[in-house]
Amino acid sequence: MKFDIIGYDKRTNARAGIIHTDHGDIPTPIFMPVGTQGSVKAVHQRELREDVDAKIILGNTYHLYLRPGLDILRAAGGLHGLGGWERPLLTDSGGFQVFSLADNRRIKEEGCTFRSHIDGSKHLFTPERVMDIERVIGADIMMAFDECCPGESDYRYAKKAMELTHRWLDRCCQRFGETEPLYGYQQSLFPIVQGCKYADLRRQSAEYIAAKGADGNAIGGLAVGEPTETMYEMIEVVNAILPKDRPRYLMGVGTPANLLEGIERGVDMFDCVMPTRNGRNGLLFTPHGTINIKNKKWESCFEPIDPDSHAECDRVYSLAYLHHLIRAEEILGLQICSIHNLTFYLWLVGQARQHIMAGDFVEWKADILPELGRRV
RNA sequence: GGGGAAGUCGCAUAGUGGCAAUUGCAACAGACUGUAAAUCUGUCCUCUUCGGAGUUCAGUGGUUCGAGUCCACUCUUCCCCA
């Protein structure tokens, strides 16, 4: 994997670049749709390619390991082979599940034991095991196995979790270095900065992670309950340390405004369930704010969802029709909302990229940012 | 014409002497950040300074300290037999 920076914003830390992978190039800044179980929920691949124009999507190690399981994945030629997706993939390591499945797991030095949310069976995830699984899934970018601790964690716990994450990272790197890709193309390992909301821990963690010299680096453990301003401060602290010539990935973030603030602070990659999950729950993101399509006021609004959109469904279907579909619980409504939101997210980072290269990122951001948070 | 059953907050329901009254649906809002989410939460008779206050269970009258619940009549609906 190779990263070329093709443009800097002179007044901020924003930059535009290209990540080259064996499955194709990824322009940055980029938003990566989340496809936890090997599917971006409610969105066809053709729509992902042609409407959304997703350059890279995510899969999840924990979920794919439980189902369909490693034998099937290996036999299929990894997740690329199983799903027929030919563009780049990234797998999250299960570190987020350490956080979100807190009731079903126990963390030890060796690793983390999980109870499957599907059948209750017990499984042990060690850094080595996670590397092996991610090799089998075969994503272009593999994430290190980390402990993502809650935003309100106290200093002592946050420090402990960070130090464990570092020790686990050493083991991830070791195993990664000892193993080969299984399907004939390269894989990269991204380590993850932790440290919760504590600037000195974040600094310490960023230095530890930077020293690994990885192809790219991730910032984890944000947008997990801490105030938004704190998140922005932590991004600044960390990005001052992470290598400038490698992509920086802010994990699990976020709102459209979060993306622009992240880009301004030097983040290149984002992923978040928000466009898809909120879309399935009837919330549309637009350049002029959010729309709750379930609200009565859209009942007879026969305007297209977005006449200028790259996505066909935004031009063809009206807000009134979408309102009807969502109320009637028609599957098509979930599909349209998901495609719309992802298209908007990809449009937004694409615009950011263009304005970085055009030199007016600051002005553009100042214009659009107040709009994004509005309620239409 | 004869016999039987039933009327509860939009719809459907619970309720057999202490009830502003159960539950589901619908409606109206809100939440959602590396997905155990096509999920979850709130409101849902009227008014409210959110402490309460006022009117309710087809209608009228009655029994009772107290009635959606018991009694009488009236109205309405449904079923069965002619």
Explain how this protein is built:
There is one protein chain. The protein has a five-stranded parallel beta sheet. Strands 5-6-10-11 form a four-stranded parallel beta sheet. Helices cover 43% and strands 18% of the residues. A hairpin with a 4-residue loop joins strand 7 and strand 8. The mean pLDDT is 96. The protein has 376 residues and is α/β, with parallel strands linked by helices. The termini are far apart. The chain has a single domain (2-272), classed as Queuine tRNA-ribosyltransferase-like (TIM Barrel, Alpha-Beta Barrel), CATH 3.20.20.105. It is globular and about 60 Å long. It is built from 15 helices and 17 strands. The protein binds one RNA strand of 82 nucleotides through helix 5, strand 15, helix 11 and helix 14.
How many helical elements? 15
| Parts with pLDDT < 50 across at least 5 consecutive residues | none
Structural class: alpha/beta
> Per CATH, which architecture?
Alpha-Beta Barrel
CATH topological fold name: TIM Barrel
Ordered list of secondary-structure elements with their pairings:
Blueprint: E1 2-8, E2 15-21, E3 24-28, E4 30-33, H1 45-52, E5 57-60, H2 61-66, H3 70-76, H4 78-83, E6 89-92, H5 95-100, E7 105-107, E8 112-115, E9 122-125, H6 127-137, E10 141-143, H7 155-178, E11 188-190, E12 192-193, H8 199-210, E13 217-219, H9 228-239, E14 248-250, H10 256-264, E15 269-272, H11 274-280, E16 283-286, E17 289-292, H12 312-316, H13 319-327, H14 331-358, H15 361-372
Parallel strand pairs: 4-15, 5-6, 6-10, 10-11, 12-13, 13-14, 14-15
Antiparallel strand pairs: 1-2, 2-3, 7-8, 8-9, 16-17
Helix pairs in contact: 1-14, 6-7, 7-8, 8-9, 10-14, 10-15, 11-14, 13-14, 14-15
The structure holds one RNA strand of 82 nucleotides.
